[in-house]
Protein 1
Amino acid sequence: MTPSSQSSPSSAFFRAWGAIWLFTWKSQLTWRRLRWMLPLLLLLPFLVWKTVDSPQMWAARKNALPLGDSTRQLWRVARSMAMWRIPLAPDQSSQLQQIYDEEYELAEREYRAIQSPETSVEEQRALVETNCQRIVDRAKSVLNERQLAQFKLLEKGFVSEAEDKIGEPAWNRTAPFYRWLIDFYFFIILPLCCVRSCGGLVRDELQTDTLGFLTTRPVRRGTLVVLKYLSQVACLEVAALMEGLLLLWAGALREIPDIGSLLPLFLAVQLLAVPAWGALGLFLGQVTKRYLPLAVVYGLIVELGIGDIPTNINTLSLMRHLKTLLSRDAALQSLFQWTGTGVVAPVAALLFGTLLFVALAALLFTHREYHPATEMHK
Amino acid sequence: MNPVIQARELSRWYGMVMGLNNVTFDIAPGLTGLVGANGAGKSTLLQIITGQLQPSAGTLTVFGEVPWNNPALLRRIGFCPEREAVPMDLRPLDWLNGLARLSGLDAAEIPARCEAMLDTVKLPREHWSKTMGQYSKGMKQRVKLAQGMLHQPDLLVLDEPMNGLDPMGRQEMAALLSDLAARGASILISSHILAELESLCRNILILNWGRILASGSQKEIRGDLKNWSEELSIQCDDPEKLARHLFDAGVLLGFDLDPAAGLLRIRVKDAASFYPAWTALLLDSGVTVQAIRSQSRSLQNIFEKVTA
């Protein structure tokens, strides 16, 4: 038998891809690896499920507006009035106590009437402000002019305090879910996993000293590195798809609203993110064996630094384009307040970035030697 | 006959360290042994030949072409590296299957070809279903050799192929390589076990500290050595008498005596004139000879003389 020299370049490419595909999958799908990979895949969805409240749990814990206790409020008013030398008379105190009790109860009733786990911050603020206005209106018949003026100031302060509490993330039940999904998984774990997997494509072979078996085969070095990248990205896409589905499922178990509409958008953006982060890792892996620290530095400078500069230079950030695409989901947009619009431009930018990094990596591998002894001791 | 490998003023350095220092040589078709101590530059040379490294200066061609990033040429070269490393999570047939595809072999014939290769290197079939991480050093060595021969290369480059093999395995490997060479393949073997190369290779390339000290057939190298002297070890009943007789005849450069063991070791001035007169000299001495062994014809001896 002789090598099939008549085969076309494209068939040779696909045959070689078949080989690299086989190596990648056969070495990934071993019991030894699966034993720790499966629990890792389940860990994050479990944390999401554990830390995000269901509507029932949330309602039990957050069943009141942050108005505080009516008796304590009256005590604070009485103390302040005394300090300003316009103390409340006993009958004024008892009447104000009654007003507070009634209005707080009314506000809570109104709140429960409109309350859903996702009652917006604006709705809650409106309720608090209306409640305050009603108390001030009723207090006009109880307090004298000087007392009323001070009382209005005090109430304004109470409203402000209550609104601050409403603004705290804990007030939005869905926020922790999105923080896990986007901040932690999508912008930390996923990029790191992709960079680690693709950065190690050549480095790990150097470490185990098996690269020579591939580079002595009749395949161009650049082609070899591209084939390894494609096979690894396919593996990563499957793993990321599983993880993404598990996370969204954990969200669905916690009855996060509109998760069905988020699912296709999230998976589509992830489909673009994995090759982009993988290409970055592949390139950094060709540059140095310390590609992970370099990736972290890159992330801090380009993704978090340059990406946040409000000029066109921020288009260098892959993360920015991913955020632009994700901002099409209303819940994400309202929580993260991302700027940037459009679909075509960010998709094109991500694809361009991916191709650029892969091309640079292939170019480096074509012209640079990777000698185990010298490379691993640099 | 055209040389398989040609190197001209070839140098390779790693920073300040010289791997190969301005070497020029030709390697003819057939079995060639590459001899050198650790750090002599053997692995560097083999990696340049197989396109894993580029020369820092000078040129090296295999079948007239530069190996670096040259798929057409690499199709004609098989390589078995020295290191023990193989993909630990793969089974040998999966690995060979993938490498065969990378080598451009016809997909339909690959499974049978891989099995035949494992049979050829005598890897027991009961181990084929295990991942290579569970293999002994000798078994890994056999699989590595199989992957090198998989695509029937015109040039097979083997870096310490006998490492880890038991004596039986070494014998089988030697027979296999001789058979391959007889069928027209060129084989370049690096080894520090000189006795193996001696019986296997007609041609030798001796490297030391990145320089080529000698190249050619063992006979040619011996002929080229100015300080070459034949060394014989003679077991006889009176070594002292035999030594005196040979010394008087003026054929010796020197000798060592071991009367208790009845052993005389001699170094001969001129082998060409000594051997024709050798029988007569022994008869004239009147000494009874039990055994004669040549010490100087071993590759070990050549290596020591060349590197001295």
Protein 2
Amino acid sequence: MAEKIVTAPLAQLTPEMVLLKERFGDAIQPAEYEGIVIANDRLLEVAQAIRDDLGYDYLSSLTGVDYFDKGYFETVYHAYSLARGGGPLVFKARTPRDANAAEIPSVVSIWGSAEFQEREAYDMFGIRYTGHPDLRRILTWEGFAGYPLRKDWKEAYYEQDHKPFDSRWPGGHHVPAEERVQFHDNVTVSSETFNVESFTPEAEQLLYSGIIPIPGSGNGHGLHTDSVVVNLGPQHPSTHGVFRLVVRLSGETVEDLKPVMGYLHRNHEKIGERNTFSQNMPFTDRLDYLCSMSNNFGYALAVEKLMAVKPPERTEYIRVIMAELTRVMNHLAFCGFLTNEMGAFFTPFIYAFEERELILDLFEMASGSRMMCNYFRFGGLARDISDEFVQRLRHLVFERLPQKTDEMENLITTNEIVRARAIGVAVLPRAAAISLGAAGPLLRASGVPYDVRKAEPYSIYDRFDFDLVTGTNGDVYDRYLVRIGEIRQSIRILKQALEQLPVGEIQTGKKAYQTRVPAGQAYGRVEAPKGELGFYVVSDGSPNPYRYHVRATCFINLGSLATMARGGKLADAIIGLGSIDTTMGEVDR
Amino acid sequence: MSDKSQVPHELKDNVAVTPWTKLFDPLSPIYNWGRKYSMWPMGFGLACCAIEMMATAAGRYDLSRFGMELMRPSPRQADLMIVSGTVTKKMMPQVVRLYNQMPEPKYVIAMGACATSGGPFKEGYTVVSGVDKFIPVDVYIPGCPPRPEALLQGFLKLFEKIEGQKISTSPWYTKKEFPAIPVPLLGPDLIDLRKVQETRNEQPEASTVPATN
Amino acid sequence: MYGLGIAKGMWVTFTHFVDTYVQDAQYLFRSAKYRSSRLPERQGPKTARGLFTVEYPREKLQMTENYRNIPFLVYNSTTGQERCTSCGICAKVCPPQCIWIVRGSDPETKRPKPEPVEFTIDATICMSCGYCAEFCPFDAIKMDQNYEMGTYDRWNDLVLTKDRLMKPDTYHYQIHPSAKDAEAANIAKSEKAKNR
């Protein structure tokens, strides 16, 4: 692998980075490809300056990278300024790749969104973030052997470092994976020799130690009461998938709340390193499985940045059409899910799914599959859309969808029960939303007019005329209204895109099954229906990515759940969770 | 008492002896018809296949036509567990617990590639390669995700299986014990306690060695 | 007035309820077969109202041409010759690596022969992405539309070997009508490769 790493060019310092360098001197060094490296001992000072003096108040992405040959772990931070918009300030921190002493100071005190992301980097790489309030594993379980995303860590079914595997062709006699492995199963520890008696599970102890009931904390009425810890377990009708909440309740009031995730951790990033770039595309479908087109879009953008290709005009318009249709579909389904949580037993859900089925028919016509579309390619699309597609879309966009949105609003918006259960419930204040890295409708409902399509326009969004919908109070009702507003804006964009749709080819360059991506680092982000979905791709010039990280918006949005739920009733916490609109495939990857 | 030899000689002409099979099996079609058209699934929606399961339950491919629209959240009230989505090692103990809590007769459908065999994520380190590694599965439905029609066809296959069951041979009316499947442990990796018990049975002296680490 | 919002919502539900009987009234004295033949109309975006249900298994929706489920191999129905040359591109490009191919080789010269000896697809791993069909240079592997694959036994029924994967090109053109013209050039290329 050493011969692949050519000397990477050092980044050009932007004026802000030059300011930082003047102030902090040698602690700031230019990094490879982009950004600056900050020395660990002054990381907190510099981070404070970045947030307060330079105005980068929003830490969007924090990820670890294992540079095996160079001998260090790197944590890459992408910070944005909400007021100014525009591109990120990229900075990195490094620590030697020593098994026990990999430490970096934690930036949780500066940006709250680092809390879950640093736990994830610890879980995957073993980097200890000193000063983190609760550094436990988040996607795997406490007691898991090893740090999975390290380059020298091999999984049980490990065959080769990179696909395609040699065992499939030319001598590809079918051998099931179970028969290839020593223990005949996807485990690295033999069940037979495991010593059950001496095993103490640590996971639950560490989890509950942060949320133990305070005896006699009382409920303010002079009665001696205790609070109780309750698990809203991974199997629960209201948790939108496999997600667990540990709640400390005093009666019906939530005192504290800890989310436990990782029940759907499907090793997307490790598998992503084994895959080639184009093989990763169908796996991105399965991230936010309701909105597969948006996931494809984000990944295609990130890799096209590295390859420096631009798709043709028709492709850009079709991409926008698909992304906005996905947004409409997701927000309609959200109305169904939210009212489910409130108790409207499936009626709006069924109406929303009827419209969703019609949109899925369109997706199936274009891409071949209802949900896992796998439609985007680097520099183009898989196949063109037919005239029947455009006809059906015209009818949907100009007639049916506006009518159905009005119907959904008639059903829900003025309903007194919905208003009583949603207004003033699960409030997320503006400052907390920014600090905790909330994105998408969650951020806009708290009064921050930030949308990636307007702040850092990608594809051809700067050509369309649409408004940003924001809320004022940051409660559940505002999040619902923001999403209904976004459906209408999306229909507006769809109308414009349909009018302007050009004829032409749909792929830049020849379609090839082997994509060679030049060495580099890129962060491509889109405004997915749930929020800002980012893909951080590091390439070393080979057909497989060196590091592939997904900035999962639902994962980071869940960090706001505790703030929203504290002080409210348990049922309100459930509605708050529903209003974040999580999809566990993206939370756990 | 299924043969005439137990009857006293003088009563032989007045007593009719019918074996259990002849008595109950003609009722089996009605029994099975009632069971199969009122199955209550425990919609165990884990991942993407859960969305297709919801779409099956929604307006276009109605599950109410099969009597299954009541998706019970509680395993105690369900008799069909539709494992839809990838089962990860962290989730596997809960899947086994829920399966144990379901009352007999119970059926399991592995919906989708991931529940059948780990699917496209089979090579992952936290993915269980197929839910049938721990619980017995009745019908496998491949696809990623399977269309709602494919799920309905899987149900029809399950109904065929149910139609083939007879009251006289149904295990839940006998005195047979249904031992609960031991819940796997989350140690350094997922530990299957049945394999531990197997080796214990083979080498009984090993269990008397005290744990010294 | 308190309750007006709820009343508005109930009106929406009521109109949906009444809508479901409109079609029943239209088809009142028609047979179930007539109703089923109107399925595309009931499911199209312009005319879908009221009962939106597809009554599987009695009624089945027509799949669009692009729909993809599990792949199958194509052979020429007149000559019986397989199109696959065991070049291995589908096995290399498959994201979960669920295709196993043993390349054919000439017994005397030991050189590769353009015909697979073994071709196995593990349908329980396949993610229906369609890459194999998209990148096959000989149009030999295509995506099937048969979704009725529920089974009791996953090892015997869902690991598809070559004999179960081979289907005639008449079937392929039946489910993919626009493929016949599009593939004419590629067929010629494949036959040339085989006759070499």
